[in-house]
Amino acid sequence: MQRGAEETLRESEARYRQLVEGSLGMVCTHDLQGKLLSLNTHGAQTIGRTREDVVGHRLSEFMPEDQRPEFDNYLSQIALSGEVQGLLHLSHVDGSVRVVAFRNKLIQSQACDPYVLGFGIDISEQVRAEDKLRALIRQSNSVLESVGDGIYGIDLDGICTVVNPAASQMLGFKPEELLGRNMHSLIHHTRADGSPYPENECPIKNTLSDLDTVRVSNEIFWRKDGTSFPVEYVARPQIETEHGLRPRIEPRIQSGILFDFEQDINPNIPPVSEDAKHAGKAVGVVVAFTDTTERRALDRMKDEFISTVSHELRTPLTSLRAALGLITGGSLDARPQKIRQMLEIAAGNTDRLVRLVNDIIELERIDSGKAELHGTMCSADDLFRRAAILMQADAASAHIRITFNSQGVNVWADPDRILQVLSNLISNAIKFSPTHTEVHLRARRIDANEAEILVRDQGRGIPEDKLDSIFERFLQVDASDSRTMGGTGLGLSICRAIVTQHRGRIWATSTPGTGSTFHFTLPTLPASNLL
Ligand code: ADP
């Protein structure tokens, strides 16, 4: 009978051992000083050791240095409260740190000294994944915060679940005024032509059922204040597959970084195939949009520029063609004087075409930043003198005198470029002034940082309403000015581009009938970020 009871006890003990040994957790006992009394094989393997390596040693010997003081806290706590749970950091023989989530209990027994029974699970992989996830979320948040594009996400009901600062700023809503609201009825309710935009026709909403990314470039979004702006947007469904939530990512879409962390965290997840994508279902849409107002204005300007240029080129080309046609047609063969006249017209128009094309190229070079400035300190006196010499022949043939007074001003500038501005302004002054008048150049210091250059004539003057527009490309006071005066209509645009490149300003003042003055400013000190 007694043997039977002993056998049962042995069997029960064996079962218990099997249970502990077979456990995928860490099962241990230790005394109140932290010395390990027993540990299952899996527990020892967690840190790359055998049971014999660790049993009999203080658990703290297997902890990273900086964690050891924690262990003493833990010992006093468990002695006091009888039970502690938390995270234990252990050093693996390979140098890595394993994180074990534990729940330990103090066992008080009559038969032996009190000891602690501990159960733990190695959660290092989860901790690593969580750390990575946190880092990626931080990264994606900072991307979301810093991108210039507006980005928002909606759920299946079209309710805003996430919005970045750029989106709320462009839409004029605070983020909290967008979150939790139906985005279609808030910002996308009416089309550009003023007709209502039913939500079931909205491409953003439709991506939820099509599971396809859409790119739309001709719609408008509405701001909080009731105004609208043209947008271009990409709406991308977030698709839930058997592997979990996964937005549909096309490799070329850069903002994939926001959402592609699933692949990063778990490299075992295979990329989603087309079939799998279609097996999944959308759980939301991410919309990235840009305000295209500026781009549209630029496109319009470009179109206008191209159309004006084509007209400007066509006029001299037509007259050139006509002159050459008359000569080659033979009808003037007997009139050499007339042929000579035609050739002069052809040559004049060719010159005009060359000037026009050169000016267009010049303007493009400055606008695109290809024309670098080579800044240096130069005296206004020297600049005026060189400009006067350059323009002397034109001035003399128009019987106009060039005078200057530089007042000892020095400027920080690229002399060649400023000479170009001065010659342009002097050339205009000569063109639009009667004979026997004067073109006067003057410099004056505005303050320690800036000087003003003035080019004053006694010409026909400029009407007040044209004082600004003459700096635009091809804009003249009189539409025939460029033709009759041989200009291209680009001279002042080039001047403005050059002065702006020097961080200066240019403007005109005038008293019609009495004369005009063109003013521009230049820095007087080298600016480290200027030239
Ligand atoms: P253009 O090649 O036609 O001279 P600009 O851009 O240099 O082109 O000048 C634009 C227009 O501004 C001129 O066609 C003329 O109508 C007006 N303008 C410029 N300078 C003067 C001036 N000094 N006096 C009167 N009108 C001027």
Descriptive report:
With 531 residues, the protein is α+β, with helices and mostly antiparallel strands. It is 42% helix and 24% strand. The protein has 17 helices and 18 strands. The protein has helices spanning 2-22, 41-45, 51-54, 68-81, 124-146, 165-171, 175-178, 183-187, 203-210, 261-265, 274-279, 293-328, 336-367, 380-397, 415-431, 481-485, 491-501; strands spanning 26-30, 36-39, 83-91, 97-107, 115-122, 150-155, 160-163, 214-222, 228-241, 244-247, 281-291, 376-379, 401-405, 410-413, 438-445, 450-456, 506-511, 515-523. Strand 6 (150-155) and strand 7 form a beta hairpin. The protein is elongated, with a radius of gyration of 41 Å. The model is unreliable at 246-272 (pLDDT under 50). Adenosine-5'-diphosphate (ADP) binds at residues 428-429, 432, 457, 459-460, 462, 470, 476-478, 481-482, 487-493, 516.
Overall, the morphology is elongated
CATH topology group of the largest domain: Beta-Lactamase
Put simply, the count of helices is 17
Portion in beta strands: 15-25%
CATH architecture of the largest domain: 2-Layer Sandwich
| Quaternary class | single chain
CATH class category of the largest domain: Alpha Beta
The total number of structural domains is 4
First-last Cα distance:
106 Å
